[in-house]
Give the backbone structure.
Amino acid sequence: MAINENSKNKQLDEFRVKDQGEKMTTNQGLRVSEDEHSLKAGERGPTLMEDFHFREKMTHFDHERIPERIVHARGYAAHGYFEVYESMKEYTKAGFLQDPSKKTPVFVRYSTVAGSRGSGDSVRDVRGFSTKFYTEEGNYDLVGNNIPVFFIQDAIKFPDLIHAVKPEPHNEMPQAASAHDTFWDFVANNQESAHMVMWHLSDRAIPRSYRMMEGFGVHTFRFVNEQGKARFVKFHWKPVLGIKSLVWDEAQKIAGKDPDFHRRDLWEAIEMGDYPEFEFGVQMIDEEDEFKFDFDVLDPTKVWPEEEVPVKIIGKMTLNRNVDNVFAETEQVAFHPGHVVPGIDFTNDPLLQGRLFSYTDTQLIRLGGPNFHELPINRPVCPFFNNQRDGYGRQTINVGQVSYHKNSLAQNTPAPSTEEEGGYVHYQEKVEGRKVARRSDSFKDHFSQATMFWNSMTDVEKEHIIEAFSFELGKVKSKDIRQQVVNMFANVNVELAKTVAESLGVQAPTDVAESTVSKSSDALSQEKNKIKGVATRKIAVLAGEGFSGKEMEKIFKAFEKAGTRPEVVSTKQGMLKGDDGAELEVDHTFLTADSVLFDGVYAAGGLTANPKAKKQAKAFLTEAYEHFKTVGATDDGVDLIADLPADPGVVSEASPSNDYADKFLTALAEHRHWSRQV
């Protein structure tokens, strides 16, 4: 069977059901005559047990929910395809990485880690970034995050980490937050978490959208080519739009204004044809170079600095279709880092090794048994045959009397494949040693890369990390825990620890020497790798009756031509009339919209005559300014930002020039104007 980008869509067509225009039936196909009233003994009498339609409908409703994921419960997903740029035959025999003319269907689920399924999207958290490739050799799952390292080195610690970061058991608070005692108690007493905490408190943990964050496979895997040569490999997803983040005050307000902010952004972008794109990159290290670095390549709390191990960009993924049903697809999708194809293999990373057990185990309870692979979203596009039978949720009707190997009744089929026929053969790594419950001494350096991360940040990014420490630890009730954490991070940077200590009212560390690590990596900084652009950015256009129709038409067209998404905000819904009779449809009111939901704000005029509208518009613009966004105004709209300090992100012209829109868009491309940060 030829696999292409439409293969999964065609397979799913078999399971899609459109109810519109159809007659109602029971699940057995019996037409239903009444769905408003249950069957009773008289109009005011008791409901009768023989009402099978009522019982079927209510029983199904009572069982509609399945256990949410213990972690990554809050998620959203989309379909798309992947194309490799050039054959990777030299490095791996994985079939989907060979032919640039092939489009491999994919399904990607983004998620937060700590919160429940109903929590907000914009909380400070790690984001899951998991991709299912439906290849002709079987499903390959790249189960990653938007941060390249993790809190722990060994999977046996994972339950402890999650217990610590989840709402505290005695009062079930706080939801979807790490700013509480048990999490920071864990950090202070498990210092391998230092590097990940630096990432977690950086802007990486509050992305602007799923479309504007990196993805990482986190673990070290292996590429294996047809000759059996193996290389260590790490996987990267790099967003074409660049890496962009929220600011903390904005993220908190978005959680209240629109808790669906990230999922709405992804849904709307795809619906409007702004298909998210991510380039796929790999870092590779030859096996003979395993020990030549100042970090252990198997340690999941370490990155491979890109200056030392460059990222080779090898392909691109495009997400071009939203799901039809969130439960059937996004909720029921089952990822597993052990779902690999020939040419991709594992390493002895102890966190990865534990995940290879855990993911299957969790699907068994969530999805009701061992047949979760037969659910439509999980079903491989290529055929699959084996002697597994029965169990909850079985959808395959196996024909014949044989369900074992070896056999003669079915000519010993289904039969294993040789490696030449595409059979998966594990890499023959030499393993020897005594059985010990220990970690290698090479895993004991917990602070050097945390310091490298700090050294790599710009002053603006460092200030955000300090503020994040101050907020998170400021929520911790135990002064002793706050002191422990400050003492711990003095090992990363003494000045960082002293500044945070002053904010928290605890003792500044005095007996810790400044770190001698001077190493940095510009690739770790968002600001040093900023991609300027305005495509898909949302602009709030504030307008009222009597706006300048001529200017509005010209500026609106320039915004749309640049690929931005201008949306009109006013005092009421309906149509606005300009000074020349031109009409403009209102998308939102000041009650239903907020500056935190937009990337920039432009005041077009017509709002200053109404005191209430003027107050609302000024507050809208001022908040956007305080969040370092581009704000602009023309005509009488300039009165609304007259009190704001002038800087490159304030674009104000009472009589707009012909290139006003270009000036506004140039400022918008900066994303944030950090000169306002004091």
Notes: The two ends are 61 Å apart (CA to CA). The chain has three domains: 75-374, 452-528, 532-676.
